[in-house]
Amino acid sequence: MNIGAFKEWLRTEYVQQNGKLLAVGTQVSRIANCRTVEQSEGDLDEHFTRDGMSELLKHLSYSSEDKAAGRAPLHRIPIDGDPVNGSSTYRAAVNLYRKFLVSEQCVIPNREADDSAVTEEIRRVERTAITRTEREALIKSRVGQGIFRYLVLEVWDYKCAVTGAAILLAASHIKPWRVSTNEERLDAFNGLALSPAFDKAFDCGLITFNDAGRVMLSKRMTQSDARLLGLNADSQLRTVTPQHQHFLDYHRTTVWKG
Q1: Of 104, 133, 155, which residue is a domain's last?
Q2: DSSP code string of 45-81
């Protein structure tokens, strides 16, 4: 477990779905919880490499029904007090460390870095009469960084919105940044966490998603290319909320090259 990097990530980068950092005391507790889990269950990094921590997180799931039925927890962590609450606490800590490891592998899109139009858009934001904090957040959201990135990852539980993969993710806007309001630019539901092929195809308008989340392929992409890239016509978003619908509708009608 990389305690130093995890601690720095919690202190400076990680945000919850409400956009706030974890309280300092909670950060300290989560790190201590992870160390306790390692003492009984082994190195967390090895668990992540093996299966993305899925088996360990399953073992740390212990419900009131399990307790009532007299079933023992699958994990080996000694817990003083209620095993349901104790297991839940350790599971939350391990899941947080999983998010840290996933974020370390995320990609920051470079497609916008050298775009002169983007540079001008950023300059316009810099001239806007808003606070410095708001200005920095908006600019970072333009290049896939900052609070927007982490809010989107939180919505999708640090997994690809389509495949569920937890590697090389990019957090991209659904309704493009350049035509979004400042509020929409930082709206977590105006974003998808996607694996590279899905992210690039979505950004270029070669795929989009219908109201049910089913992928829609552009006729400009051959079926063979789609298949080779893993862009299966049966693929769909793992979930679609009402908050996503407005943005997906914009993408279908304006960005998608049907």
Answers
A1: 104
A2: HHHHHHHTTHHHHHHT---HHHHHTTPPPSS----SS
- 35-51 pLDDT per residue, tens: 999 999 999 999 999 99
Angstrom distance (rounded) from CA 54 to CA 66: 19
Q: Taking the complete model, does pTM exceed 0.85, yes or no? A: no
Same domain membership, residue 242 and residue 132: yes
Q: How many domains does the chain have?
A: 2
Question: Which amino acid is present at 109?
Answer: P
| Beta-carbon-side half-sphere exposure of residue 66 (alpha carbons within 13 Å) | 15
Whether 158 and 248 map to the same domain: the answer is: yes
Distance, in Å, from the CA atom of 175 to the CA atom of 29, rounded to the nearest integer, reads 38
Domain that holds residue 218: 116-255
